[in-house]
Amino acid sequence: MFSPQGPSLRELAIQALSSVEHGYDLLAPKFDHTPFRTPDSVLDATADALRPLGPFGEGLDVCCGTGAGMRTLEAVCQGRITGVDLSAGMLAQARAAHPAAEWVRADVRALPFAEAFDVAVSFGALGHFLPADRPALFAGVYRALRPGGLFAFPIGAPPPITSGWYWALLGFDLAMRVRNAVWRPPFVMYYRTCPPHALRDDLTAAGFTVTTVPLAPLGRRDDGSPRYRLALARKPTAEADRPYRRPA
């Protein structure tokens, strides 16, 4: 599961008992040698799906980590590309790997941008946000995009209840909830808190128009459904085009 250059079990345990920020600072030098780094196949499939929707000018990678998402942005953007992350350690690795990009350290629940980008992407990060945090995250991405801008991220198909992965992910989330109940600071990372219908509802509430497309290069499951879909959240070109939201 891990390459010889990856972290040891001891290092992973220390990370798991840290905060999200400090944990990733510790993991950063070896992160790209773990299975947590988004595979190139997912990055390339995302670029293939975005390319017909462009070309885009400036691009933003939300929760950029060590900068893997630059592979996608470089393929579809004609202007500057920027990564934003809370972990200084991850940003240091990203800056070394992609010196031509711009890097910003910030809490993505309070993104410091306003109508600065034409496209935003995010890979493998939504599990770090509790459902109560997603509205702030999506509102910040909405503000960061220019009118007509696009926010895109891949969504893996949930494993069936008969799958070993279903029970492994359920067990991981339960263990994480126990850990966070008895240990501080919390380390927020859950695999089952981002069902597609909830993501769609939160994106729509933020003002986006939401669609999805299959990521065909990543294959299909036994039932014929795609293994991955790409969520496409479009910021309207004018305020009058925003989806209607029922008053609270």
So, CATH architecture?
Answer: 3-Layer(aba) Sandwich
| Largest sheet descriptor | 7 strands, mixed
- Top CATH class: Alpha Beta
The residue fraction in helices comes out at 25-40%
Class based on secondary structure composition and strand pairing: alpha/beta
Overall domain count: 1
Distance between the termini: 46 Å
Q: What value does the average pLDDT take?
A: 90
Within CATH, the superfamily carries the name Vaccinia Virus protein VP39
Number of helices: 8
Radius of gyration equals 18 Å
What is CATH's topology name?
Answer: Rossmann fold
Strand content: 15-25%
Query: How many E strands?
Result: 7
Anisotropy-based shape: globular
Q: What's the helix-strand series?
A: HHHEHEHEEHEHHEE
Describe this structure in words.
One of its GO terms (biological process) is methylation. The protein is globular, with a radius of gyration of 18 Å. It is built from 8 helices and 7 strands, in the order H-H-H-E-H-E-H-E-E-H-E-H-H-E-E. By secondary structure, it is of the alpha/beta class. It has one domain (9-237): Vaccinia Virus protein VP39 (Rossmann fold), CATH 3.40.50.150. It has a 7-stranded mixed sheet with strand order 3-2-1-4-5-7-6, sandwiched between helices. The mean pLDDT is 90. Helix 1 runs antiparallel to helix 2 (20-27), helix 3 (40-50) packs parallel to helix 4 (70-76) and helix 6 packs across helix 8 (196-206).
